[in-house]
Design goal:
By secondary structure, this protein is of the alpha/beta class. Helices cover 32% and strands 26% of the residues. The strands form 2 sheets. Strands 3-2-1-4-5-6-12 form a 7-stranded parallel sheet, sandwiched between helices. It has a 5-stranded mixed sheet with strand order 8-9-7-10-11, covered by helices on one side. Helix 1 (12-22) crosses helix 6.
Length: 254
């Protein structure tokens, strides 16, 4: 049985994860941490990691970047693995995560969806065939409450594509400030925020007289919760290091 501490338990994704764990027979939530008060969960909740009394195997994090230092300090000091699902980290914060992974197991992904990670692999394969001759643009759409832009998933896609290009591309987020034609060495990344869109990502390969588009739509938040829970079970008892969705999928196929 994998024992989980849920960071961000009072948020929307926290509630979805808590509900999903109820239907799981290989893990349980032993405590929640959230700065925004109490709730009616069956497990105890705390405003800070310093208050946590329960022993756990893994922390699942669906909170915000402001909690990172507390999360990593608790996880490293108590030798607890961490599944980090929060996005919007600065390069300096990502470095902190990488440093912590030298002492504990860390599963870090900008998106916990199996389908999104398949989209990334398909985009990488398309780049091998089309990348040097086609212009590449990424469009991501999310609900009007999402704070970070572009999404962590859009950056994951762009990074995956970059690995397959002959030259390191320039990520372009906004073209209104200059007037010049598009460079061949660009990947355009565009963010849409509106309504209750859970998450949509389109990768566009635009060539001469033809366009290839690879798309993914998330229709509920449950798929992200399921991915995080699977990652927590996968991470239990793993040695220190950085882990991702590709490694978890490979492990399942063994």
């Amino acid at each position: 049985m994998t024992k989980i501490i849920l960071l961000g338990c009072n948020g929307k994704m926290g509630h979805v994860v808590a509900d999903a764990v109820k239907n799981s027979d290989d893990c349980e939530i032993v405590a929640g941490v959230d700065a925004f008060g109490d709730n009616d969960y069956s497990f105890p909740t705390y405003k800070d990691f310093s208050e946590v009394k329960e022993n756990a195997d893994v922390v699942i994090d669906f909170s915000n970047p402001a909690t990172l230092d507390g999360l990593l300090s608790y996880a490293v000091n108590n030798k607890v693995a961490a599944v980090i699902c929060t996005t919007g980290y600065s390069p300096e914060e990502v470095k902190k995560i990488e440093n912590a992974a030298e002492q504990i197991a860390v599963f870090y992904s900008g998106n916990m969806s199996l389908g999104v990670n398949l989209l990334i692999e398909l985009a990488k394969q398309a780049t091998k065939v089309l990348g040097n001759d086609f212009d590449i643009e990424i469009i991501e759409k999310h609900h009007n409450l999402k704070v970070d832009a572009p999404s962590g998933t859009a950056l994951m896609i762009a990074d995956g594509i970059s690995e397959e290009l002959d030259k390191e591309p320039q990520f372009v987020y906004d073209r209104h400030s200059y007037r010049r034609k598009r460079s061949k060495n660009e990947i355009g990344i565009h963010a849409v925020r509106g309504g209750t869109i859970v998450g949509e990502h389109d990768v566009i390969f635009a060539g001469h007289d033809e366009v290839v588009t690879i798309s993914h739509q998330s229709q509920s938040k449950e798929l992200f919760a399921t991915g995080a829970i699977n990652a927590a079970v996968f991470l239990k008892d793993k040695p220190a290091g950085m882990y991702n969705m590709s490694q978890m999928l490979a492990d399942k196929l063994k």
